[in-house]
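Hi team,

Filling in the usual template for the complex we talked about on Friday. All components are listed, including any nucleic acid strands or ligand strings, so the model treats them as one assembly.

SUBMITTER: L.P.
PURPOSE: interface mapping
COMPONENTS: two
RESIDUES: 658
SEQUENCES:
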Amino acid sequence: MRITALAGGVGGARFLRGLRDDLAADPTYGPQGPDPAEITVVVNTADDITLFGLRVCPDLDSVMYTLGGGIDEDRGWGRGSESFVVKEELAAYGAEPQWFGLGDRDLATHIVRTRMLDQGYPLSAVTEALCSRWQPGVRLLPMSDDRVETHVTIGSGEDRRAVHFQEWWVRLRAAEPASAIAPVGIEDARPAPGVLEAIERAQVILLPPSNPVVSIGPVVAVPGVRDALLGAPAPVVGVSPIIGTAPVHGMADACLAALGLPTSAEVVARLYEPFLDGWLVAEQDAGTVVAPSITLRARPLLMSSAEATRALARAAFDLALELAPEVAT
Amino acid sequence: MRITALAGGVGGARFLRGLRDDLAADPTYGPQGPDPAEITVVVNTADDITLFGLRVCPDLDSVMYTLGGGIDEDRGWGRGSESFVVKEELAAYGAEPQWFGLGDRDLATHIVRTRMLDQGYPLSAVTEALCSRWQPGVRLLPMSDDRVETHVTIGSGEDRRAVHFQEWWVRLRAAEPASAIAPVGIEDARPAPGVLEAIERAQVILLPPSNPVVSIGPVVAVPGVRDALLGAPAPVVGVSPIIGTAPVHGMADACLAALGLPTSAEVVARLYEPFLDGWLVAEQDAGTVVAPSITLRARPLLMSSAEATRALARAAFDLALELAPEVAT
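RESULT (copied from the run log):
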């Protein structure tokens, strides 16, 4: 069973861990079953950033750490049992920026990654090498080996300026209204090796509850990916990252506002509409209006426990099987 | 009072701290005195190494940390209250080398240095920037802004090979006999800005008890430095790093052996002979034979306490004043 997911950071990572674990325990799709799940995750790299000369890939790392058992479960990003000695020392030198939470354990990942990139390895090869330690149980692909960095336009008049997405997200907590969000470099980015094939050959395609503007959006915007989704034989099932008028996690509302859009499950479904076949929303959003081509289901969306997360992931997977049984078998 | 010293790591750093502290408390050479000491230290960079893409300058850092109050006093290198989280994580990735003790606090220095070097700043400017935090109370100059790396030839026959000095020193503990020690790049290295002037304009020149082969040797071998020492009006006073037939600290014996030389204060004096005016040896080495142009003094050489270290540094300084009172006043 070939499953491909497009994902961002925290929400995507938790959903995918639930999916992996639920299918691993399934008599059909488990490792000993007749149709073992092969999960490929195409991860957003548009919020990557170079800090202190080190290449940081927040979404790739969140997925890798979460599925590899190295995540800080409370924060949802970075390493568990983390210390921040290097960060304190960098601050003592007055080195900027000081607003990014660069932990000591996490730093080793960035050092290994940066060295490999400097040696000429593409990010996809670096990711594979890092995963040889973490064994996430899924195949992790960056959306592209080419550099894409999201810039956010904030302020107005003379004070209008563009900052790196991470500065807006982490330092400003997305509290300063954004008038534009642009993944710089996306037009020239090529899908990483295996990305288009993973979409074209998938039997199930899932969109976890990731940020539609700064996570799933850039992945879809990599030239070739949207067309691959439109042409893919597999059903595409998404999970709303919005309950009512608020994001389940993070600050997707601030991102949608930058596009002039309100925050609702309906709005996100419309962003995905051309390639979306199934849409899971919260029970309170059961009345969400979607295009007739999209099958709506209401399910508990809160990934408040391992069980709830597995149930949600399974609901998305089952909806896909239901929508296109001929592809999935 | 303009004092210039050439130095390596641990021994040089401790000696210089003693010198700085003793002169700071002196009514003549203290900060409020009529002739305040201005100490310039030209530091060996021939044992620098790039590890994990980060530029490490062990001797510069030992001097900077020691004089800046950040050194690990027991080890004599690296930061006090150090942790090794990043190193453990790098090892978990299987990243090599694992034999170098890269501490978390120390790492921040290398990250700041590497970023500045990548931005185009020469090592001398980087060193000045790092010292703005540490305030060592002396002017630290790398011997050169150009890259020099010492390679050590070990093994014999088919197994003969060159390794980086740090690999021989740290991983092999200099236990494997060396047949050659070569500071690669030294012929093309230019003295860093200020190095030649510091020697030419000095009133006192000191050679702390640093390794003559891999610390003081490379500094002197930077084109222009030897001639500056030969032509300098200031007296040159050195402190033997050897007591009897053993190094006071470190493994200078293994380095001298690589040159086919025995280990003694006499041998080291001969290496410095063309420019050496005064030579401090241990009391047991009072019978050391030196050239008639060199004034020999026997003093306790062990820097076993702050007081002993200050006394040794002061003895070297006083010998210089005695040898060339016309230059020193």
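MY TAKE: The CA atoms of residues 151 and 165 of chain B lie 5 Å apart. The radius of gyration of chain B is 19 Å.

Thanks, L.
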